[in-house]
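## retry 2 of 3
previous attempt timed out at serialization; input unchanged, resubmitting
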Amino acid sequence: MNQDKMHLVNKIFNNETIRTVWNKEDEKYYISVVDVVGVISESDNPRNYWKVLKHRLKQEGNESVTNCNQLKLKASDGKYYNTDVVDIEGMFRIIESIPSKNAEPIKQWLAKLGSERIDEIFNPSLAAQRAIDLYRSKGFDEKWIAKRIKGIQDRKQLTDVWKDGGITEQKEYAILTNEIYKEWSGMTAKQYKSFKGLRKESLRDNMSDVEVALADLGEIATREIAKKKKPKGLNENIEVARRGGKIAGNARKDFENELGESVVTSSNALNYEYVNEKEIEMK
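## retry succeeded, writing output
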């Protein structure tokens, strides 16, 4: 599937030309501010409109401008120029700052999303049902969805054990997860996603049932060893994560010896691939 056709940003703007680019290091999409401003404001000179708006937002202390970066994006003449870009959150904040009838449908959509999330705080079952409905809309069957929800619960139990062991930073959770993955798959989670041709998509959602079983085994083994050994701090938990991942790695080896082939596959659930852009530099 072509990158642009599956890109949320272009859907929001009814497939107007909005230049977007994927930054592998940040694992984020960045969007051309001038393109967004041009569509929303309908200005004859979107660059100047953005210049004036940018100055006003700076004076107001708006973080959208603070977090605005520059990337080299392809222009209509085929050349690459430094262009102001923001991530998707920044894009919405800029849209909210533009007084235009074109911005109203998007503002109403954002308000509706905010209302739904508040409702979910009071009734968490709404969030669970939303997740189930989304998986159904993507074509996953009921048995797969049930296993996926169970996997999310198991993952929460693991992170709770890690928290008891002094792990509090998100980057530490990522480090420990990578240690488990490396032991059984030979790749970090980020490398695994790249191997499958994924970007923002969930790695677990794009695994085969065997891959999911191995990922689950590695995390469950890590959890149970940690509950028994009670490691403290990152270094001790890394050692336990490696031991848990190794159990899944041994199971993988035994399974592959029987099958005569690798169970780690580059296939993803939707069988799509991205069209790679020219490498970009963040400034």
